TrEMBL record:
It is an enzyme of class 2 (transferase). One of its GO terms (molecular function) is UDP-D-xylose:beta-D-glucoside alpha-1,3-D-xylosyltransferase activity. It is found in: Membrane. This is UDP-D-xylose:beta-D-glucoside alpha-1,3-D-xylosyltransferase. Pfam families: Glyco_transf_8 (PF01501). It is a single-pass type II membrane protein.
């Protein structure tokens, strides 16, 4: 009995080895075959897993804060070919400022709450990234870690093809006065936009953006506007300011703080930092003179500075800074709008949050809530369905014939050209 059991055991082991050898070979081939099918169905696009690593460190003065955004790309296949590689022609560099009210300072009611900041940044960032085919480096100036976490969480869960288009560079600024002006400074954090050339010595140029802006055209088209500067120009903005369109003649003060008698809006600026640095003396002298006239208001300061050196100013197309006031008299205030369409809308004065500004509010909310995995075609049909009615509900824009078409123009031109 013992012997029989032993012989049975021997036979079954050798059979088992045999079966295992054949089975193993089949298994390996099957694996290879399945892998091939899988890769084919994935269009040979690599499986990428992105891990965000944030190293937050404060420098000795507790002033600067660097978030090193490391992207670790893991590929499952050894053949890591990306179906649609993004080849940056020229990186777009932009900057936004998100300053939370400092409770210890006066005027705290005049700036947005944390929620409004994040809310506005969502629609700005989504509209920029969604419509862009370029890599964007976005400098974000903040005065609290909470805002850094808030903004980071905005982009974190976008699909990788959208997330990979933008690199966020946070810098935490102290609430100490930048310009050596006393406590009149309303929000010292915001004043940093007057010294970008010093803050970012590594950058050649940047686009400054208020957060209450929504893009309706790729930001790289705005970056190309830098190329229109003549040799002396270093600063671009959109004129005019509407408040000058009244019958009363300008006071001397109004003349000073409104560039060329028209004024420009400082919510969207093109700054060639290389050139500002090369004109450092002139620029600093103008800033100091401006500070003697206006204690604090960056827009007035910039207007005043440009009045002192008008050769530095490049007048941008008004289509890049569409505000509601423009609707009052489009042919006079922005004649190019009808032919060129709207490039970006600006909800200045809290317009995104006011019920009567239906069209701006709807655009802001649509982009804020957008699922970034949607297609542009989808976005176009959804906006087409809501915009005409929204325009009709927004006086005085209801009188601008075809405004909804102007708002959609560049997205329609882009349709079929984006990889989204
Ligand atoms: C800014 O000015 C410098 C110096 O003129 C020039 O080389 C550079 O191309 C300009 N930057 C942009 C973005 O046009
Ligand atoms: C627009 O402004 C121009 C110049 O001030 C004026 O002549 C024209 O009548 C205005 N149009 C409307 C519709 O108000």
């Amino acid at each position: 009995m013992f012997h029989r059991r032993g012989s049975v055991k021997r036979i079954s082991i050798s059979k088992l080895c045999y079966v295992l050898a054949i089975g193993g070979t089949i298994f390996v081939f099957l694996q290879l075959y399945l892998d091939l099918i899988e890769r084919k169905s994935a269009g040979y696009s690599a499986y990428r897993r992105i891990i965000r690593k944030e190293a937050i460190s404060e420098d000795s003065e507790g002033d600067l804060l660097n978030v090193n955004d490391e992207l670790l790309i893991e590929t499952r296949n050894t053949i890591a070919s990306y179906s649609k590689p993004m080849i940056p022609i020229e990186e777009v560099v932009a900057a936004i400022i998100l300053c939370e009210a400092d409770e210890t300072k006066p005027y705290k009611g005049s700036i947005s709450s944390f929620e409004q900041h994040i809310d506005r940044a969502k629609s700005l960032l989504k509209s920029i990234v969604f419509l862009s085919q370029q890599h964007i480096k976005l400098h974000v100036l903040v005065n609290s870690n909470e805002v850094i976490r808030g903004i980071t969480s905005v982009v974190e869960f976008w699909p990788p093809q959208q997330r990979n288009k933008i690199a966020l560079k946070f810098r935490k600024v102290s609430s100490q006065s930048t310009l050596g002006v006393e406590e009149k400074t309303r929000v010292t954090c915001v004043s940093k936009k007057l010294i970008f050339e010093k803050m970012y010595p590594e950058e050649d140029a940047l686009i400054y953006l208020d957060t209450d802006i929504v893009f309706l055209r790729p930001i790289e088209d705005l970056w190309r506007v830098f190329k229109n500067f003549n040799d002396e120009q270093l600063f671009g903005a959109v004129t005019p300011l509407w408040r000058i369109f009244n019958d009363k003649p300008f006071t001397e003060f109004e003349k000073m703080v409104n560039f060329a008698g028209r004024g420009f809006n400082a919510g969207l600026l093109l700054l060639n930092l290389t050139r500002i640095r090369s004109q450092a003396e002139k620029w600093q002298a103008a800033l100091q003179s401006a500070l003697e006239v206006v204690a604090f208001n960056e827009q007035s300061l910039f207007n005043l500075m440009m009045n002192l050196n008008p050769e530095h100013f490049y007048e941008m197309d008004c289509e890049w800074n569409f505000r509601l006031g423009l609707c009052t008299n489009v042919t006079h205030r922005c004649p190019g709008l009808v032919a060129n369409g709207v490039h970006a809308v600006h909800g200045n004065g809290g317009a995104f949050f006011k019920d009567r500004n239906v069209v701006l509010k709807i655009l802001h909310e649509y982009w804020r809530d957008l699922d970034m995995s949607k297609s542009l075609n989808n976005v176009i049909s959804e906006l087409n369905a809501i915009l005409p009615d929204a325009v009709l509900k927004t006086p005085p824009c209801d009188l601008v014939e075809g405004l909804h078409e102007m708002l959609m123009k560049h997205m329609k031109l882009l349709d079929g050209k984006l990889d989204n």
